[in-house]
Amino acid sequence: MHPHIVVGTGPHGRGLFATGPISAGELVLVFVGPHLTRAETIDSPIEAYTVQVGPDDYINPAPPGCFINHSCQPNTRFSASDRLVASRDIRPGEELFFDYSTSMDEDHWTLLCECGVPGCRGRITDFKWLAPDVQQHYLARGMVPTWLVVHLGGARPAPPVTKRHHRQTGLPAHRRAARV
After folding, report:
1. What are the residues whose beta carbons fall under 8 Å from the beta carbon of 59, sequence distance 6 or more?
2. Per-residue pLDDT at 154
3. Into how many domains does the chain fold?
4. Average pLDDT of the residues in 96-122
5. Residue 49 contacts by C-beta under 8 Å, 6 or more apart in sequence?
């Protein structure tokens, strides 16, 4: 994890926050934790917490990775299937977000989104179900992991930057899943 990131509490519950400036392109987080298959995640208590890193590969992220929240206007993006980099300069005090849809291709569940940003889509779903203009926005900026781009048809993401909520009891608001 980047040295200027801490776990804190904000409007979406626990999340990751910048304690100092982070430049666009800087590595902010590597997801670490046990790797699981899709079958091991479906209908399990950890399902809403896993991050898909391949067609049948998921990580159950250990702290601090399990605390990063979703936004329809994220300030981080994937640089590899398990790594997030700042997609723009991030100011001290700002919460870090990624768009969960940029790592999803499972046709199993969605999340109702309550991120509250202008243009919020209202639902987090598989990348392939996003509106074409949203897909193109993310692809043009290299915000989709290569495994997903290839899996969905062989398109190539943009080159990396050269600088280094549905209500379901028992889960935090940012991780409540709604089956589709």
Report:
1. 31, 32, 33, 34, 35, 36, 50, 51, 53, 65, 82
2. 52
3. 1
4. 92
5. 60, 61, 66, 175
Distance between terminal CA atoms of the chain? 33
Query: ω before 64 within 30° of 0 (cis)?
Result: yes
Q: Is the pTM of this model over 0.85?
A: no
Residues in the chain, total: 180
Instruction: Give per-residue pLDDT as tens, 120-178.
Output: 999 999 999 998 889 999 999 999 999 999 988 855 443 444 433 333 334 444 443 33
- Residue ranges making up the domain that contains 98: 5-179
Instruction: Give the CATH number, domain containing residue 145.
Output: 2.170.270.10
